[in-house]
Design brief:
The protein is an all-alpha fold and 325 residues long. The chain has one domain: ABC transporter involved in vitamin B12 uptake, BtuC, CATH 1.10.3470. 73% of the residues lie in helices and 0% in strands. It is built from 13 helices and no strands. The two termini are 13 Å apart.
């Protein structure tokens, strides 16, 4: 498969992202359309409020969440040198889920759930950080195994919380676990985080290229491996924690979009990072649009639809590429 020029590819991805956001704002079950925003249009105040206060913030939050998850997945794959690594592999999502569902079981809602998810994610990150240290410092294998064990323990606690919860709260808990953007109100936190994280990831793109080739190669090249590992781990964990706190566990995005970007544009992280962020944001916007319109007025879990949308696309591109870069 012939690779396009990088500026053209990024322009195409940016236009697709804008088109997805515009479609998400224009389409819904209420009947409000973009015509209500045109100067001199007869659209009423309710239609404008639906477009500007409900659909637009939700679409922008979906884009920011998907882009942040894509960057977190990219960092995890470079850190662990494992193509199956994703933002949730080291237990950050599990810690957030335990704390958030615990808050729901106690009858708390709103800000308390978000706060609980953030604290749980931070505790899981610090736990893995502490337990993964050993003789000789970190290794990708030790870090991965520790994260998997912590994630498994969190999964068991989540199962217990679901079993102990009453039927009135169970549906909300399950939707949170599978990703839910229904309560997205302000996208600025995620967009601001993306605006900070993306330039930083691009800035460390060259060291990530070296780290992805192996620790020995990185040391020969004069790279300070340990500080870079710690920075990448903390950065990926914080991005994951922010995404989980905002939208619950939206799976698949951080695993597949970095691979899609590599398949299309090569393995240079300075190029893969913006491409993966645009792909991840667009994927979640499309999945959220489908989630709220397919069986409207009922809503489907966003996480399930990200897989339904992304799997065929990934398999189609992979079938045209012999080697997974």
């Amino acid at each position: 498969m012939r690779r396009p020029a990088t500026p053209i590819a990024l322009l195409i991805l940016a236009l697709l992202a804008l088109a997805a956001i515009a479609t998400a704002v224009a389409v819904g079950s209420s009947g409000a359309s973009l015509e209500a925003l045109w100067p001199g249009a007869d659209g009423n105040a309710l239609s404008r409020s639906i477009l500007l206060d409900l659909r637009l913030p939700r679409a922008l939050t979906a884009f920011g969440t998907g882009a942040v998850l894509a960057l977190a997945g990219l960092l995890m794959q470079a850190l662990l040198r494992n193509p199956l690594a994703d933002p949730y592999v080291l237990g950050v999502s599990g810690g957030a889920a335990v704390a958030a569902l615990g808050a729901m079981v106690l009858g708390l809602s709103g800000l308390w759930i978000d706060l609980g998810a953030a604290i749980g994610a931070l505790c899981a990150m610090l736990t893995v950080f502490a337990l993964a240290r050993g003789p000789g410092g970190w290794t990708p294998t030790r870090l991965l195994l520790t994260g998997v064990v912590v994630a498994s323990g969190c999964g068991a606690m989540v199962s217990l919380l679901l079993a102990l919860s009453d039927d009135a709260r169970l549906k909300g808990m399950l939707f949170w676990l599978m990703g839910d953007l229904a309560y997205a109100s302000s996208p600025w936190t995620m967009l601001a985080l993306l605006a900070v994280a993306l330039p930083l990831v691009i800035a460390v793109g060259r060291p990530l290229n070296v780290l992805a080739r192996g620790e020995l190669t990185a040391q020969i090249a004069g790279l300070s491996v340990r500080p870079l590992r710690i920075g990448v781990y903390v950065g990926a964990s914080l991005l994951t924690a922010a995404a989980v706190t905002t939208a619950g566990s939206v799976g698949f995005v951080g695993l597949v979009t970095p691979h899609l970007a590599r398949l299309w544009l090569g393995s240079d992280h300075r190029i893969v990072a913006p491409a993966a962020a645009l792909m991840g944001g667009t994927l979640v916007v499309i999945a959220d649009l489908l989630a709220r319109t397919i069986v409207a007025p009922r809503q489907l879990p966003v996480g399930a639809l990200t897989a339904i949308v992304g799997v065929p696309l990934f398999l189609s591109l992979m079938s045209r590429q012999r080697n997974l870069a």
